[in-house]
Write a structure and sequence with these properties.
Blueprint (H helix, E strand, L loop, with lengths): L4 H4 L21 E4 L5 E6 L5 E8 L8 H10 L9 H10 L3 E6 L4 E8 L3 H13 L5 H18 L3 H14 L11 H5 L3 H11 L5 E7 L3 H11 L24 E5 L5 E10 L7 H12 L5 H9 L6 E7 L4 E10 L3 H17 L4 H17 L4 H12 L6 H12 L2 H11 L6 E6 L2
Parallel strand pairs: 2-6, 7-11
Antiparallel strand pairs: 1-2, 3-5, 3-6, 4-5, 8-10, 8-11, 9-10
């Protein structure tokens, strides 16, 4: 039977039907425990012989400055007692592997990407980095120089100035969430401080391992043989302080920057974190306001007014706080108009129910995004990590899906009236007067 033209060439004049599965199943990670008590979460999926192994360190003390924490994590791979940074890089490169590091005020991590067939070889190199980091003076000096130069460049940008100030206003200049590094912080870094923090923080009692890819029993066995047979000889815990935030009365801040062509606007507040039941419907509300290209803020301030190339809102969660923030850069001469339009859109959310067609569009967008974020082993282990580190379970995702599907316009209005009132926000503008 001869195929018709329609069977071969799709009709591009017709919009494809949007189809969202009735039930979204999230494959869960397996859980193992190494002989010394380290928890391992593993997603065995995929057809390629690629493996990601991430060591996350969680018991961070809040009495250390962020420059020290970032430096310790970044420089951990820059040389050991046996090999230089270049030699370590070349050894890993020989096996097609590499390391990444990440640090924030709540967690630090070191990630190994490798081929499964070379996992023993690369894990042994990785263990040398983790157990025997030397923090050479030369590498520390290079890091300090580069970090200070990067900071100087950033300090000239209105976007950086506004971001720095809004964090400080929300959490306090001394709190890790609100503090931002200075050149003095980098100047004060010394090898002994780095080695001391490394010795008290990177130990087996402070570690969770997340693995993903083509994970075999042999890989889990190798993890246990290399990382599970001893206590890493560093079991002294860091002495954390109670998390406290400072509050300020002033709600509006202006940071002058002569010659700036744009003004950076940050409007934000502290809010509930992801463990609160209202977090999921608030994500729907944030998406409507400024969470995708067709959002209200984009439609109004970019498409209608032409004030900016981009504007968005974000609902985020850290371990000890959530935040809601609106960010944009606009032409200097329309700064006040843009701010007024932002508040106008905030007020609309509590004054008018979201139309059904707009809400359905957002639901489709959010569910489609969610499905992309559980596609593949690496995405799945990221979802697992996001709940394990917050001491939650997989029902978190079920609640998210239910909120996206079922939150009503009336509930959204109520949430906007409770959480997104204009007088609850802090406002920061950086730019030219």
């Amino acid at each position: 039977m001869k195929a018709s033209t329609e069977d071969i060439i799709p009709d591009r004049t017709r919009i494809p039907e949007i189809t969202i599965p009735e039930k979204i199943t999230i494959p869960q990670a397996e859980k193992f425990t190494l002989d010394n008590g380290i928890k391992v979460y593993s997603v065995n999926a995929g057809t390629q012989d690629v493996v990601r192994i991430e060591f996350v360190f969680t018991d961070k003390s809040t009495n250390h400055n962020s420059a020290l924490i970032a430096a310790v994590n970044k420089l951990i791979r820059e040389g050991t007692a046996k090999h230089s940074a270049l030699e370590i890089s070349e050894m890993l490169d020989f096996y097609g592997a590499y390391l990444e590091t990440e640090s924030n005020p709540d967690f630090s991590s070191i990630v190994l990407f490798t081929l499964g067939k070379y996992v023993n070889e690369t894990l042994n190199i990785f263990s040398e980095v983790l157990f025997e980091a030397a923090y050479p003076e030369k590498e520390i000096d290079i890091y300090k120089t580069n970090s200070k130069q990067f900071l100087r460049v950033n300090k000239e940008k209105v976007s950086y100035m506004a971001r720095k100030k809004i964090s400080e206003v929300l959490y306090g200049a001394r709190h890790p969430y609100g503090y931002d590094e200075t050149e003095t912080d980098y100047d004060s870094l010394n090898r002994q401080a780095l080695v001391d923090f490394y010795g008290s923080y990177y130990h087996s009692g402070n570690c969770i391992i997340f693995t993903a890819g083509k994970i075999s029993d042999a890989i889990i066995k190798s993890l246990n043989e290399i990382f599970g047979k001893k206590d890493w000889l560093r079991t002294k815990p860091t002495n954390g302080k109670e998390i406290t935030f400072s509050s300020v009365a002033e709600k509006k801040y202006f940071i002058p920057k002569e010659g700036a062509l744009q003004s950076a606007i940050r409007i934000g507040k502290r809010i509930i974190d992801k463990r609160h039941p209202d977090f999921h419907p608030l994500m729907v509300l944030s998406t409507i306001l400024g969470g995708y290209f067709g959002s209200r803020l984009m439609s109004n301030i970019r498409e209608d007014k032409g004030f900016t190339y981009g504007i968005g809102s974000m609902l985020g969660s850290m371990l000890h706080s959530g935040f809601f923030i609106i960010t944009t850069e606009v032409r200097s001469e329309v700064t006040q108009q843009a701010i007024e339009e932002i508040y106008k859109e905030l007020k609309r959310l509590s004054a008018e129910p979201v139309p059904d067609d707009e809400l359905q569009m957002v639901r489709n967008y959010m569910l489609g995004t969610f499905m992309r974020n559980i596609d593949g082993a690496f995405h799945l282990i990221d979802r697992c990590k996001s709940i394990v580190l917050f001491d939650m379970d997989y029902d978190y995702f079920e609640r998210h899906i239910a909120a996206v599907r079922n939150t009503t316009p009336e509930q959204l209005m109520q949430l906007a009236g409770e959480y997104l009132t204009e007088d609850s926000f802090y406002e920061v503008v950086a730019g030219k007067k």
